Amino acid sequence: MSSHFDAVHQRLRAEVAAATRILVAEGILDYSGHVSTRLPGGETFLIQTGLDSRAELRPERLLVVDYEGKVVQGEGNVPAELALHLEVLKARPDVESVLHCHMELAIAFTMMKGVKLHLMRARAVRWESGIPTHPDPSHIKLPEQGAALARSLGAHHALLMRGHGLTLVAESVPALLVDAVHFQENAQAMMQVLQSGAEPEPLTADELVQINKHEMRAFHIGKLWNYYVLQGIQQKVVPPDWGLSGT
Ligand SMILES: [Zn+2]
C-alpha cells in the first residue's frame, strides 16, 4: 500500500468512527446500525463489527471487507445486516458511503396510513428525486434481500424501510453525517406539523428550483462536519487525537 493510500485509509477509518459516535450523540444511531465507506483501490470497504459499541467505536477496530462479503482485515464478525451495505455499494458506483440506522422518526413515516414523508425544510432538497419505502420489514441478512433493497433505493439518496429503519447514501462520510442530521430535522418538522393538527404544506417544485439555485453542498458539508467534529471533541464524544479537528 502506498503512503498516500495508507493516509487516505487512516483518515476514512477516523471519519467512520467519528461519524458513528456523533450519530449516536445525535440520537440517530444507537445500539445498532452502521456506517460503511469504500476504501481506495475499488476492492474493499470499511464497516464496524456487529458487536462493537457505536458509542465507543475506534478507527482501528473497523473491518476491511471485500465485495464478496469476506473480511480481509480486522478482528470480529461483520454486522448481521452487512448485505444491505454490500448490495447498495455494488448497485451504486456513484455512492461512497452508506448509513443504515433505525431512526425513530423515519420509521414513524412507514407506519402511518395515507401519510408520506414530504420535503418540508429547505435542506430536504437533497431528496428531491423521492424517498421510497422498502416493503420488507425484516432484517436485511441475505444477499437477495440486500439486492431487493438496492432495487427499492434505485437512484435515490434515501430509503425508508417499513417498520424497521432508514438507509442513506452519500458521496463521503461527512456528507452522510450531514444528510442524516437533515433527514431527521425534516422528519421532525413534518411530525410537528401533523401533531399540531395542521395540514402539511411541503416545498413546491418552484421552491425546490429556487433552493437548488443557491445550493452549495460541498461548502455546507464542510461547515457542518467541522461543527460536529469540534463539538464532539469538546463533549468528549470524539477523541482529539484522531486528526479530524480544524478540517
Ligand atoms: Zn436494521
Structure report:
With 247 residues, the protein is an alpha+beta fold. Helices cover 40% and strands 13% of the residues. The protein has one domain (3-242): Class II aldolase/adducin N-terminal domain (L-fuculose-1-phosphate Aldolase, 3-Layer(aba) Sandwich). It contains seven helices and eight strands. An eight-stranded mixed sheet has the order 4-3-2-1-5-8-7-6, with helices on both faces. A hairpin with a 4-residue loop joins β3 (63-66) and β4 (71-73).
Q: What CATH architecture do you see?
A: 3-Layer(aba) Sandwich
Major β-sheet strand ordering: 4-3-2-1-5-8-7-6
- Radius of gyration (CA) equals 18 Å
- Tell me the β content: 5-15%
Structure annotation, total helices: 7
Helix coverage percent:
40-55%
> Strand count, sense and closure of the main sheet?
8 strands, mixed
Shape: globular
C-alpha termini separation: 25 Å
Stated plainly, the CATH topology is called L-fuculose-1-phosphate Aldolase
CATH domain class name: Alpha Beta
List each distinct ligand once.
zinc ion
Averaging pLDDT over every residue, what do you get?
A: 96
- The helix/strand series, from N terminus to C terminus, equals HEEEEHEHEHEEHHH
* Tally of distinct domains: 1
Structural class: alpha+beta
Determine the CATH superfamily: Class II aldolase/adducin N-terminal domain
Regions with pLDDT < 50 over 5+ consecutive residues?
Answer: none
